[in-house]
Design the sequence.
């Protein structure tokens, strides 16, 4: 009796413990603490703790199905043992088991088991070694890429310009890397995790240290250190260094007097916007008397140049204060003798694009003691030249569209009018491409034109005895009456990408020379007038091997015996006869630092050409059609990835800047 009771007690205890264990396992499973597998994951991938939280609903259902079916099987075996096989509850259990066996969840589980078996067999089977071609494939790709790059580098002449060369190089490198990456993932037999990790190290690590900012004149990416690298190892970013310098240097006390004197440069590229400098003789022998540095300091970003009046300099910059969180286009007035800031005035704006770079482009204009500036997003402002206070401002791109590389035309002041060319990039802006505002009030006086603008500045010239405004837009060259905007004449001149950058050169009373890059070339346009009818026709036209002015303008050297134009043809200095359009000579060196010029800027002083190269160098070249002759070269700017800003010369001193640094040099040798 005792034994029978003791056995019953013992069996009951075991059942209680088993039930408690099942309950604990169920709670453990529902709480997401079980180790399991998911059919959607690759074979041999075992989920760690928390598997239910990461498993799909099908695998959770399969788990409970498996538990339930196992329980039914045990109960059926017990019923068979005790002769209760045909009891109703057993029949119901069989029906349930049969239903579960036919369910898609069970079939899914069987399919997963089959895949697992196949994977096991694949792991045990030795891998087949790739063939010789597959093993040598990356070396074949590298050899082809090297051949293409070598051909692009050594391609003769200007029949393939530097931009095209760079595009070939970029695409060759990209396609080669992508091809080798696909080979490594699909055919090499390497682990995919190893391949992706290697690719991440090759690409991700450099991008973590350097960042692409813009493109060079040869259309090749420019990389600079990221701000955190500059702050930790280089003394600070450009914005930080500029802010510290301005705080330490202080400002000049008292207002500025921007009255224009003889020899000043109040306009972009000089009074006539032709790049001609009137001033003292320059030192020709830089080996004995090199240019003397007067001052050097940081400056904000952008591609505008300086204008000067009465011992003061004015430019427009992009400034950002990382501490205060503002980002502005800022017009700044400096003391020319020391480089100290006199006043600054700005507005919230930042033009940014990856090819050219960030910041304003258009050089301000000084007239009647005031400053007129044109922002990269189309804001035209008039500032009091004494303290920089805003007199008036207008948004010229309202209802219009900006250019890809931003507004770049310097304002032209003619009498009491300020003329700008924001263009008509949308149908809604037709009839408003060229505008004239009252100089003192900002009131719109006239507007005309329906062509998209380009990157050239309005220019005043006299043709057939008539003073007119020359507009070099995206589709051609026009002559307009300054006071009314009436169209006098027009000639078509369309280039690839609708880009015209160089300033027109008024050659004589009835001829104007224009030049464009992007495989276009140059032409001498003859302007005639019969009664009230104006006509424009080409006197000569070059092929696409000369006068390819992309980021720069040419200068004209005229005397009784000669009439030539000098300019940077795809970064190569050349001399062209203005009578025939024939190229006389060109610098045969490739555009690079220390040898040639790149897409820099040039000025003409007497018979000397002063070049500010794309690499921040000052170079002196003799302006003679006899031969190319370089007289001297110094590294003038030491910071900034590239220099596209036009230099300004006043009284034998040259004021230069790029997007990070500005400096002053004395070129007279005194």
Sequence:
């Amino acid at each position: 009796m005792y034994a029978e009771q003791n056995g019953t007690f013992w069996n009951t205890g075991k059942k209680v413990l088993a039930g408690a264990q099942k309950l604990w396992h169920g709670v453990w499973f529902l709480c997401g603490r079980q180790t399991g597998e998911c059919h959607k994951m690759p074979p041999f991938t075992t989920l760690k703790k928390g598997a239910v939280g990461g498993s799909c609903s099908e695998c959770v259902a399969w788990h409970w199905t498996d538990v339930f079916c196992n329980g039914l099987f045990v109960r059926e075996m017990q019923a068979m043992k005790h002769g209760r096989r045909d009891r109703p509850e057993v029949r119901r259990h069989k029906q349930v088991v049969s239903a579960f066996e036919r369910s898609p969840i069970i079939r899914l589980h069987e399919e997963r088991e089959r895949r697992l078996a196949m994977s096991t067999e694949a792991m045990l089977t030795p891998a087949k070694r790739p063939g010789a071609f597959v093993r040598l494939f990356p070396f074949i790709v590298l050899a082809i890429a090297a051949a293409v790059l070598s051909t692009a580098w050594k391609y003769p002449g200007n029949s393939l310009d530097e931009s095209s060369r760079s595009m070939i190089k970029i695409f060759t490198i990209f396609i080669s890397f992508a091809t080798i990456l696909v080979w490594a993932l699909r055919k090499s037999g390497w682990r995919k995790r190893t391949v992706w990790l290697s690719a991440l190290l090759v690409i991700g690590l450099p991008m973590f240290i350097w960042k692409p900012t813009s493109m060079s004149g040869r259309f090749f990416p420019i990389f600079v250190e990221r701000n955190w690298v500059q702050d930790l190892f280089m003394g600070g970013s450009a914005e930080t260094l500029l802010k510290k310098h301005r705080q330490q240097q202080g400002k000049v006390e008292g207002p500025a007097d921007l009255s224009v004197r003889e020899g000043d440069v109040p306009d972009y590229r000089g009074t006539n916007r032709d790049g001609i400098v009137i001033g003292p003789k320059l030192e020709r022998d830089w080996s004995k008397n090199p240019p003397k540095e007067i001052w050097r300091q940081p400056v904000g970003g952008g591609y505008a140049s300086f204008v000067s009046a009465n011992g003061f300099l004015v430019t427009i910059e992009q400034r950002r204060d990382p501490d205060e969180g503002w980002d502005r286009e800022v017009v700044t007035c400096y003391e020319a003798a020391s480089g100290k800031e006199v006043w600054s005035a700005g507005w919230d704006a930042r033009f940014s694009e990856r090819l050219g770079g960030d910041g304003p482009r258009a050089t301000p204009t000084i007239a009647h003691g005031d400053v007129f500036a044109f922002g990269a997003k189309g804001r035209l402002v008039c500032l009091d030249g004494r303290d920089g206070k805003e007199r008036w401002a207008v948004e010229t791109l309202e209802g219009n569209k900006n250019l890809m590389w931003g507004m770049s035309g310097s304002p032209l002041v003619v009498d009491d009018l300020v003329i700008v060319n924001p263009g008509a990039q949308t149908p809604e802006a037709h009839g408003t491409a060229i505008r004239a505002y009252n100089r003192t009030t900002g009131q719109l006086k006239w507007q005309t034109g329906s062509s998209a603008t380009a990157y050239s500045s309005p220019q005043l010239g006299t043709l057939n005895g008539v003073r007119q405004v020359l507009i070099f837009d995206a589709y051609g060259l026009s002559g307009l009456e300054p006071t009314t905007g009436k169209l006098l004449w027009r000639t078509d001149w369309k280039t690839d990408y609708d880009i015209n950058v160089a300033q027109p050169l008024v050659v004589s009373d009835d001829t104007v020379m224009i030049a464009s890059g992007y495989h276009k070339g140059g032409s001498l346009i003859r302007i005639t007038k019969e009664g009230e009818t104006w006509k424009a026709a080409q006197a000569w036209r070059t092929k696409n091997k000369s006068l390819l002015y992309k980021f720069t303008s040419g200068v004209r050297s005229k005397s009784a015996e000669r009439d030539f134009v000098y300019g940077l043809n795809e970064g190569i200095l050349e001399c062209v006869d203005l009578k025939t359009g024939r190229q006389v000579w060109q610098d045969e060196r490739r555009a690079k630092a220390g040898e040639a010029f790149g897409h820099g800027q040039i000025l003409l002083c007497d018979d000397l050409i002063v070049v500010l190269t794309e690499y921040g160098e000052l170079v002196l070249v003799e302006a003679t059609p006899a031969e190319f002759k370089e007289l001297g070269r110094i590294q003038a700017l030491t910071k900034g990835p590239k220099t596209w800003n036009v230099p300004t010369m006043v009284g034998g001193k040259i004021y230069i800047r790029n997007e990070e640094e500005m400096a002053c040099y004395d070129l007279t040798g005194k």
The first strand starts at residue 210 and ends at 215.
